[in-house]
Amino acid sequence: MATKTATVSNVKSDAEATAANVKRLVTLMTIFAWTALTVGVLLCLINISHFSDKNTTLMVGIGCLVGSVFIYVIGTAISLVHARIHQAMEDQQNDDQSNHIL
Q1: Rounded to an integer, what distance in angstroms lies between the CA atom of residue 81 and that of residue 88?
Q2: 70 Rama class: left (phi>0) / alpha (psi -120 to 50) / beta
Q3: Are 68 and 40 in contact (CB under 8 A)?
Q4: CA angle at residue 24 from 89 to 13, to 5 degrees?
Q5: Contact yes or no for 64/39 (Cβ under 8 A)
Q6: Which of 34, 32, 61 is closest to 46 using CA atoms?
Q7: What is the Cα–Cα distance from 72 to 83, expressed in whole angstroms?
Q8: For 22-76, how does the pLDDT look when each residue is reduced to its tens digit (9 = 90+)?
Q9: Is residue 59 within 8 Å of residue 47, measured between CB atoms?
Q10: For a disulfide at 33, which of 14, 71, 76, 95, Cβ 3.0-4.6 Å?
Q11: Residue 33: exposed, middle, or buried by beta-carbon count in 10 A (0-12, 13-18, 19+)?
C-alpha cells in the first residue's frame, strides 16, 4: 500500500480571502463607476443642443452621471466598513493578548 502526501503552500486564511474579495469588489465598482461616468458624459454631449425632458439620450446621460456617483460612493463605503471591521478585530486581539500577559 502506498502513502501519498501533498503539500499546500498557498492557503489563505479567511480574513485574507475576505480582504482580497473586498478589494476586488471595490476595484470592480470603481471601474463600473468610471464607465458609467464616461458613458453619461458621452450621451449628454451627443445631443445637448435639444435641452429638454423629451431628449432621451440627454436624460439617460444624466442618469448615468448620477448613477456613477452612487456606484462610487457604495464601493467606497464597502471599503471603509471592511477596514473598520478589520481594525476592530485587530484591536480586540491586541486587548486579549495584553490581558493574557497581565
Answers
A1: 11
A2: alpha
A3: yes
A4: 45
A5: yes
A6: 61
A7: 17
A8: 899 999 999 999 999 999 999 999 988 888 889 999 999 999 999 999 999 999 9
A9: no
A10: 71
A11: buried
